[in-house]
Amino acid sequence: MDFEKAIIAFCEKQLPDNENVTNQIEGETFIASPLQARWYKMHSLGFGQLLMPVFIDSEIDTIRMSAAILKSLKKYDALRMNYEEINNQVTAKILSVDKISPPKIIDISNLEFEEQYGWLKKWILETEKHLPNITHSAPIETFLIKLSEDKYFFILHTHHICFDGWSATILWEDINNNYFVKNHAQPNQLSYRTAANHAWEFLLTQDAKLLRARWQSHFLGAHRLTFPLPDLDIDTNSLADKTGQKISYIINSTNTSLIKKKGIDSNVPMFTVLMSAFALFLSKSSGELDVILGTTTAGRSGQNVDNVVGVFVNPLPIRVQLDSELSIKNLILKVSDAQDLLQSSQNYPLMDLIENVPFFNGSDLNETFYSYILYQNFRKPKISEVDSILGEPDDESAHQYLSAFNAEETTLMRYFELIIFDRPSGELSMNLWYRKSIYSKEIIKKYSDELNDAIEFIVDNDLSKSISSYLEH
């Protein structure tokens, strides 16, 4: 408690007031954004928890850093909301800044490295047992863990209902601006409440009407969702077990460069090449030529949202229709066209798609795709004064300390997920998640090889080559 009082006192006396703290709307209740409403529903199924580590490789003033963290947490209204459902409508209430607590300071600097690592692994497991409360308090708690005089962890335990990957960069940069007392006023910064209102207003526009028509056309005649064929029984019990495991591997920088070159040759980004390979793999592993897969957009296409903390990442399904005589070039073009629809739909929510696209009518929010691909390339923090690394919980880090956060199991939303990370070395980190109740490790190893074969097939062959030789191999 003495630490907490010291942090609050330092915050009030030593750090200047943020000009953009949105405390003028404390106590206000509003209709939660479509994305918040989705995560409210997902929370009841056990999804949404987020543990975000930042490794600090510099000497810091613990009290000053804690005060800087508290200052930033109070600044963003999305971080101090709770939620409830009234008459089938999810509402959000903005809480007082006084409801935000300073970080808990934990000192394990007296332990040797092996003991610290073991302590971290145990602490992570215990922390993840407790899903953040989204109905009675702000779903956020923070920790500052001292490893040595010049090594620390800042850890954010929160929920996707109020936070996404892009938000991590915004928050950590703002914390450092507070720590070093920089002038960083952002007069055009929106509150998340305003962004939520804009999201609902968009659905009343002509642009939204045109998008609905495009999505209806996109899925016209679709029959079923696509996923690699399981080798274990699918029944009510196995589907109830959502425990996911993963295998991870690296695509070296040389091969990554070849993937990028294929994208340049095809006039598309590297991710389009990777998604084309994923769609090709899904076709082979499922036996389906009509492929439906899921991915996400950043969801930040609106004005003045680049510096807003909150959930904007928008998941949507896309469809890629293949035939055995399709060329690699035309496969890439089909995927590129689907991605163009995605980019035009950054503000178009899944809930509206389910309601207005006949193929998805009546589907649950977690039943619009069973196979998922994500390319994690959101902007990383630019901080010169403190050496720090923003951790990626879904990645397989080789970092001495961050590797403690490598997830071995998780509650997996879909049957089959591919999460791809850019590495500073130019490599790609490939993380293949799967439901262990329906897939064995043996079949996943086989599917991993087939996915790599799909990437190599696209990269190594002329654009005019038919995909039939891959599908029939």
Q: What are the defining features of this structure?
A:
single chain; 473 residues; 5-stranded mixed beta sheet; 20% strand
Quick description:
The protein is α+β, with helices and mostly antiparallel strands and 473 residues long.
Major beta sheet, specifics?
5 strands, mixed
Quantity of strands, as a count: 15
Approximate strand percentage: 15-25%
Percentage of residues assigned to helices = 25-40%
Strands in their spatial order, largest beta sheet: 5-6-7-2-12
What average pLDDT do the residues reach?
91
Q: Cα distance, first to last residue? A: 66 Å
Structural class: alpha+beta
Q: Choose one word for the global shape.
A: globular
Order of helices and strands: HEHEHEEEHEEHHHHEHHEEHHEEEEEHH
Instruction: Specify the number of helices.
Output: 14
Low-pLDDT runs of 5+ residues are none
Rg, Cα atoms, Å: 23 Å
